[in-house]
Amino acid sequence: MSNSKTFLSLTFFTTFLFFSFVNATYYQDISPSFLGFKQEKLTHIHFFLHDIVTGPKPTMIIASESPLNGKSESPLPFGSIVVLEDPLTVGPELNSELIGKAQGFYVTVSQAAVLELELVMGMTFVFTGGKYNGSTLSVLGRNEIISPIREMPIIGGTGEFRFARGFLQAKSHAVDYHKGDAHVEYNVYVFHYPSTSSSSEDFAEGSRFMKEPMFGQI
Ligand SMILES: *[C@@H]1O[C@H](CO)[C@@H](O)[C@H](O)[C@H]1NC(C)=O
């Protein structure tokens, strides 16, 4: 009788201890400086994106055709999905200095059968040279291509762009309506914490996290 009581209270105690460890260790408040982030900074980045439809190496493909294909006036009817990998350059010419690429997709989201497309775009700018080599910025938003200036949110980033938030403005620089090729000017405005360490370095604080709060409880 007394043994089973001891057993029960021991079970209860270990369970309680286990849950208090779990509660104590799976999250904690930290300050940005704990991860080496000092001051949030606003950066403006300017480049040109090239969406090449024709030629030997198109930078985009229609990954999924709409069921409305052939039944709609729209060149990309409601539901079409396009996947892109577009080069990003410093100047407006395709052969100007390459700084990265945009990898992503766009979906036609308007049911109106018109030439003026309304898209939702999701893409990541991957920088491959210079100060931001290896860092990325993620974009998700609505792109109404008839507007002279299209604005989309920057929803995050990696490397130099950790904690990124901001917006971009896209403006057609040159469009070949016959071929479909488009050269688009991008102005990106982003708040971020530039890292004080190498952008690919792992954070060592994870291991500290496992030990300190737990021992603190005992
Ligand atoms: C960018 O970083 C990669 C990986 O660290 C490196 O191999 C490459 O040479 C860098 N490119 C430029 C243009 O600095």
TrEMBL record:
Subcellular location: Secreted, Extracellular space, Apoplast
Gene Ontology BP, a term: phenylpropanoid biosynthetic process
Keyword ATP-binding: no
Alphabetized UniProt keyword annotations: Apoplast, Secreted, Signal
InterPro entries, per the entry: Allene_oxi_cyc_Dirigent (IPR044859), Dirigent (IPR004265)
Domain of life from the UniProt record: Eukaryota
UniProt keyword DNA damage present: no
Pfam families to which the protein is assigned, alphabetical: Dirigent
UniProt signal peptide: 1-24
Subunit (UniProt): Homodimer.
Protein family: Belongs to the plant dirigent protein family.
Function: Dirigent proteins impart stereoselectivity on the phenoxy radical-coupling reaction, yielding optically active lignans from two molecules of coniferyl alcohol in the biosynthesis of lignans, flavonolignans, and alkaloids and thus plays a central role in plant secondary metabolism.
Record-given protein name: Dirigent protein
Originating organism: Pisum sativum
